[in-house]
C-alpha cells in the first residue's frame, strides 16, 4: 500500500490503517510502508525522486513476497494519489508478480499535476537554487531539483500499457484527478478494468470531515475487488 506525497503509511484519516484492518478480516494480509524520508522511515525528503520511490516500492514487494504465509502468486498493489503512480509503475515493471492493481484518486501526469499543485514558482526556485521549501497544507517539506527533474522521465500511461492484470480506479465524483480515469482505463492492457466513482467525494474522500467521510465506501469497494481478484491462484 503506497501513500501519497508528503503522507505516511496510515494515510489521511487513517484510511490505509482502516483498509488494512478490513482486508485482514477477509483473510488478506497487507504491507504499509513509509517511503524514505516520510513517516517513520529514515532519509531526507530532499533526496526524494520518482526513481527512489519506485526502488522503495520494489523493495516492499520483495519483502512481502518473502514473508511466511504470504502467497507470492496472489499479491496485489494499491496506491493513493501520488502513491498511485508508484503502484502503476511497480505493476508495469513486474506484471508477473502483481495480480491486481487498485489506485485511489490516481495521479495521471506527474509533471502537469505537480505544476498544478505547486505552481511554476516552485519549479523555477528548484531550478535556480537547487532546493525549494513547500507548504503542502498539512505539512512542510523540502524538495530538490532532482525531484522536479524526475517528473518528466516517467510516463504513467505508457507504463500502464505494460500491465495486463486487473485494474480498478477509485475517485470521488468531485476529485479533479478524475479527469485521468478515461485515459488510465484505456491505457491498461488487461480486459478486467473498472472505474469506481464515489458520489460526493473529493480527492481525499472527505476523510478530514468525519461527518462527511466516504472512507467506508472506498474501503468496501477495495476489499471486494481484492477479494475477487486475488481469490484464486494463478
Automatic annotation (TrEMBL):
InterPro entries: AB_hydrolase_Est10, AB_hydrolase_fold, Hydrolase_4. Residues 15-116 form the Serine aminopeptidase S33 domain. It comes from the Bacteria. Keywords: Hydrolase. It holds the Pfam family Hydrolase_4. One of its GO terms (molecular function) is carboxylic ester hydrolase activity. PANTHER family: ESTERASE ESTD. This is Alpha/beta hydrolase.
Amino acid at each position: 500500500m503506497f501513500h501519497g506525497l508528503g503522507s505516511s503509511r496510515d494515510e489521511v484519516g487513517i484510511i490505509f490503517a482502516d483498509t488494512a484492518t478490513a482486508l485482514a478480516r477477509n483473510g488478506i494480509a497487507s504491507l504499509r510502508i513509509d517511503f524514505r524520508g516520510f513517516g517513520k522511515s529514515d532519509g531526507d525528503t530532499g533526496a526524494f525522486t520518482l526513481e527512489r520511490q519506485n526502488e522503495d516500492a520494489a523493495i516492499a514487494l520483495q519483502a512481502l513476497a518473502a514473508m511466511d504465509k504470504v502467497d507470492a502468486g496472489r499479491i496485489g498493489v494499491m496506491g493513493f494519489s501520488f502513491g498511485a503512480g508508484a503502484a502503476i509503475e511497480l505493476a508495469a515493471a513486474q506484471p508477473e508478480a502483481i495480480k491486481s492493481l487498485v489506485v485511489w484518486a490516481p495521479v495521471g501526469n506527474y509533471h502537469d499535476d505537480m505544476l498544478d499543485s505547486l505552481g511554476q514558482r516552485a519549479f523555477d526556485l528548484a531550478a535556480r537554487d537547487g532546493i525549494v521549501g513547500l507548504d503542502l497544507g498539512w505539512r512542510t517539506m523540502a524538495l530538490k531539483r532532482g525531484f522536479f527533474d524526475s517528473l518528466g522521465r516517467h510516463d504513467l500511461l505508457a507504463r500502464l500499457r505494460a500491465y495486463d492484470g486487473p485494474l480498478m480506479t477509485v475517485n470521488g465524483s468531485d476529485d479533479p484527478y478524475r479527469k485521468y480515469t478515461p485515459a488510465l482505463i484505456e491505457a491498461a492492457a488487461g480486459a478486467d478494468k473498472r472505474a469506481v466513482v464515489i458520489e460526493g467525494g473529493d480527492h481525499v474522500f472527505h476523510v478530514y470531515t468525519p461527518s462527511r467521510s466516504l472512507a467506508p465506501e472506498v474501503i468496501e469497494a477495495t476489499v471486494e475487488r481484492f477479494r475477487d481478484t486475488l481469490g484464486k491462484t494463478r
